[in-house]
Amino acid sequence: MKILITGGTGLVGHGFKKISNQFDHDIVYASSKDCDLANFDQTNNYIKSLNVECVIHLAANVGGLYKNMNFKVDMFEKNMVMNYNVLKACHDNNVDKFIGMLSTCIFPDDTTYPINERMLHDGPPHCSNDAYAYAKRMLDIHCQAYNEQYNTNYNCIVPTNIYGDNDNYNLDDAHVLPALIHKCYLAKKSGEDFETRGTGKPLRQFIHADDLARVILQLVPKLNQENVIVSPTEEYSIAQVATYVARAFDYEHALVFNTTYSDGQYKKTADNSKLLNLLPKTTFKLLETGVQETVEYFIKNYPSKVRI
Ligand code: GFB
């Protein structure tokens, strides 16, 4: 297939580049330098020019808990505009298949666990990321609208917290794992405490970007107007994650928790049984192994080749 991947130079885009040789696709990796997805005419002309059969839309304005809490307008507006432009351009240029990216954080906060694909609109999301969550929920609604009116084959993947090499390690905007890796690196260098924000009690599921990319390409021929949660089953406390990071830096003794910071959502436990029905042999990298590898990547590439 000829496939366009938007956000092709980001965390998951990088994962696709590492595993795509396992598949026989002609993949175009687009970055914001190739096309401003906030501009409809540019987006439409770009997708028209490529003549692709499938679009995997990874481009998004994303960030960790604290970025979501502090930049709600950006998280809402930039994602609404990009998603609207890309999906409309896909339809206007007869792209057969679309795969968008949601996240388990957009599901209802007051719910029963584990969450599954049918529960997406059953209630308000957590207040810490409601702006981002509703923008992403509208992508699902937009896909369904096209599928019902034009019988298109537009789908969404729902990953849990993603991590891996080419992540954003900015201390304020990053997700928890890259933020802790950057902090532990700096703490060890200066001999200071390794501070984890919050109580360390919240629970999260983590998927390595390479695993996510591989699973998405395996799902491409199978998806038919549906959403699929993509996640390992295991759930870890933030304290356990911080311990894995500290252990990878051989700096466990300095781990402290700053409870003046928000914990955000306590958990968002996701049910991956639909995925395992579609792809029974799916395996995921163990978190401790993935953390060790990502720490080695960070140490090797800091500061010039990492986003900080
Ligand atoms: O990955 P994260 O920022 O976002 O994880 P969410 C937040 C959890 O990690 C909270 C703790 O419980 C924080 O208290 N934490 C500890 C830290 N130290 C740090 C730190 O230095 N930085 C960060 N960021 N967290 C996001 C959503 O929720 O999940 C996004 O807001 C997105 O929209 C993402 O969907 C996948 O897991 O809470």
Describe this structure in words.
The protein is α/β, with parallel strands linked by helices and 308 residues long. It contains 10 helices and 12 strands. It has helices at residues 11-19, 40-50, 65-70, 72-92, 130-150, 176-190, 209-219, 238-248, 273-278, 287-301, and strands at residues 2-6, 26-30, 54-57, 97-101, 153-159, 161-163, 194-197, 203-204, 206-208, 227-230, 236-237, 255-258. The strands form 4 sheets. The protein has a 6-stranded parallel beta sheet. The protein has a two-stranded parallel sheet with strand order 6-9. Strand 4 (97-101), helix 5 and strand 5 form a beta-alpha-beta unit. Helix 6 (176-190) packs across helix 10. The longest helix has 21 residues, at 72-92. It is globular and about 60 Å long. The structure holds guanosine-5'-diphosphate-beta-L-fucopyranose.
Give me some keywords for this one.
308 residues; six-stranded parallel sheet; alpha/beta; globular; binds guanosine-5'-diphosphate-beta-L-fucopyranose; two-stranded parallel sheet
Radius of gyration: 19 Å
Stretches where pLDDT is under 50 for at least 5 consecutive residues are none
Strand content: 15-25%
Ligands = guanosine-5'-diphosphate-beta-L-fucopyranose
- Give me the strand/helix succession: EHEHEHHEHEEHEEEHEEHEHH
Shape: globular
Largest sheet: 6 strands, parallel
Structural class: alpha/beta
Mean pLDDT: 97
Helix-residue proportion: 40-55%
Distance between the termini: 35 Å
Tally of contiguous helical segments: 10
Total number of strands: 12
The strands making up the biggest β-sheet line up spatially as: 2-1-3-4-5-10
